[in-house]
Amino acid sequence: MHAVAAVAATADVVGEGRSGTHGGRRHLDLTRARPCPGSPRCLAHAERRGYCGPAPIRKEPTVKSTRLITAVVVAVVACAMAGTASAAAPTVTYFRMFQPAAQPGTLVAVARVSMKGAATRAQAFTKNGVPRRVVGALTVSGNGRTATATDIVRLKRSGLAGGTQVLYFRFPAATARALAGADDIQSTLRVGMQGQRRQPVVAPRGTRQFGGLGGCWPFFCDPPAQTNPPASPVALSGSVGGVTGDMCVFFDGPGTQGPYVESGDISDYSNASWSIFAEQGSDFSISDGAFSGSAWEQPPWSAAMAGTPGQATTFGGTVSAGVLAGGSGTGTVTYSGPVVSGYPTEIPVATTSAQVDNC
Question: Is 231:256 a contact under the CB 8 Å cutoff?
């Protein structure tokens, strides 16, 4: 399930696992730099791929070679600076805090952020196209108290193209009680790929995020909304013949109101293979325990680079009553477009503590 690690401290918490997820182990995916020869073509290629490095020097420099070495060093530095300058900050498209009077000791925040332009493909995906994790750290202060909560989700497969990640922060009861009654709460949200530097998120110009009784202009808030927060997202996963089906059920709140499938995926994670994913957010509303919507069949990265096209499909499935109540349960994930890689068209799933995309 979508568990959250929270601590009463001002320092950012990087690499903290979610409660009950991965046994608290760290999962850091670090991108290694590679040598970059000094030709402009190579440097341009390296910049596109997100890595640069000095070329090895094999003989003593002469006046002529010194000029060449200087040119290479300048080009490499320019390449590195260009890569740094081109990285934009993550963008927040939704932010809301909840502290219901009917639930003393409760403080929950929900943020929806976009990683478009904020990470390279090498930072965001493994070489086989499996999404890496996004880390968010939310620091809040008021009444002279400060606390930080973290959340970790898997990047959506459309994450670099604008697909948003939903971060769910739950603060300790002691923190929530200490902040109760504050005239306003200041908050700072930093987001980044796990193992990379986190950056303060940026609010689109002119955006005003409303939160019940008050509103948030990220990130300076009136008292948080007094309505019950949405229930924690519920992750489901299962496999048939080594092919994994995942989905994540979210709630609009208060409580378990408005459940919908935020993210769904069918893939063979053991190698570079086709992936079927559905990430249309609230378009995948759940009615009478069933859902469906448009999705996409994505070829392996190497095949896509060679010109193999993706194709449209329909992603759907079912969800049991236990899941809709915000607890444990079962379901199915299906697709009805062209069959790819011999994937089954229906996979039984059950609630899990493992991470699935965006959950």
Answer: yes
- CA angle 196-200-203, nearest 5°? 130
Distance CA 311, CA 308 (A): 10
Helix (H, G, I), strand (E, B) or coil at 4: coil
Count the Cβ atoms, other than its own, within 10 Å of residue 132. 21
Question: What is the number of alpha carbons within 13 Å of residue 181 lying toward its C-beta?
Answer: 5
What single letter denotes the amino acid at residue 97? M
What is the phi/psi pair of residue 219, to 5°? -130, 75
Task: Say if pTM beats, i.e. exceeds, 0.85.
Answer: no
Provide the Cα torsion 164, 210, 109, 116; round to 10°: 20
10 vs 298: which has the higher pLDDT:
298
The pLDDT, as a whole number, for residue 97 is 86
8-state DSSP, 22: G
Give the closest residue to 274 by CA, choosing from 231, 251, 303, 247. Answer: 303
Residues 6+ apart with CB under 8 A from 20: 1, 3, 353
